[in-house]
Amino acid sequence: MTLDRAVLMFAGFVVLLGIALSLLVHPWWLALSAFAGFNLIQSSVTGFCPAAIVFRKLGAKPGVAFK
Length: 67
Hints:
This protein is mainly α. The protein has helices spanning 3-24, 30-46, 50-57. The chain has 3 helices and no strands.
């Protein structure tokens, strides 16, 4: 799995987790989904993605978007 796919999969998982927790536990869990969305926007503008750094250190192969 490439670094790009790992980051996108993780972001999707966080969004879905936030939605599920907001339905099952408390509506404030939507803040988790909002944080993931904000992080996706800022990483597209700045090129800095903390998740990409973590996945790179875990050994994910480089992709096209995050170098």
